[in-house]
Design goal:
Helix content is about 60%, strand content about 10%. By secondary structure, the protein is mainly alpha-helical.
């Protein structure tokens, strides 16, 4: 238990995750009060300490992370404008379709992050996903943009992997502890 707390405080990826979860907690409660910060930190630290959620190992690369955040922010603005234009245009120019986007194996550690980021892509929403096969099923407003959308998904997956690298297969710490006990 002490080792997990030490790891929680010394690994940059875990610290970033706890900080992001604590900030999200405060945003959801609507204020950054001392009580919200403290309770958010407890919930976030417990969640990360127990190994719930995304992989808690690996690094954080600031350059690719900033690039990923920039691409997602631009996508959010574009998506808002595209949908507003669709709503305000009297003629319906949509050619809706469902497409399957196959994620690279290495990007499956970022499945939830990619679902959120892809949903912000203009005219796109994730309607289903299969982690085992790495397939995301996307609803797109304009089928003529199918190839561009699939290339954009590949770019987001690549950025996520570069920004938040995870070394090899992730082995839960509990299994690591059991292995250590058996060999000593």
């Amino acid at each position: 238990m002490i080792r997990r707390m030490r790891d929680l405080l010394t690994r940059p990826r875990r610290l970033a995750t706890v900080a992001a979860l604590t900030a999200t907690w405060c945003v959801l409660w609507g204020s950054f009060s001392v009580a919200n910060l403290a309770s958010g930190f407890v919930v976030a630290a417990t969640t990360v300490g127990l190994g719930l959620g995304t992989a808690a190992v690996g690094g954080v690369r600031l350059g690719p992370l900033l690039e990923l955040l920039w691409v997602v922010a631009v996508d959010l603005v574009r998506s808002t404008v595209d949908v507003a234009v669709e709503i305000l245009t009297p003629t319906d120019r949509t050619e809706e379709s469902i497409v399957a986007a196959q994620l690279p194996l290495r990007s499956r550690d970022h499945f939830l992050l990619l679902i959120v980021a892809i949903t912000l892509t203009p005219g796109t929403a994730v309607v289903d996903g299969d982690l085992d096969t790495g397939t995301l099923y996307l609803h797109i407003l304009h089928d003529r943009r199918r190839n561009d959308t699939l290339r954009h998904v590949e770019r987001l997956a690549d950025l996520a992997c570069r920004a938040l690298p995870v070394p090899g297969p992730v082995i839960p710490e509990a299994a690591d502890d059991l292995h250590m006990e058996e060999t000593t």
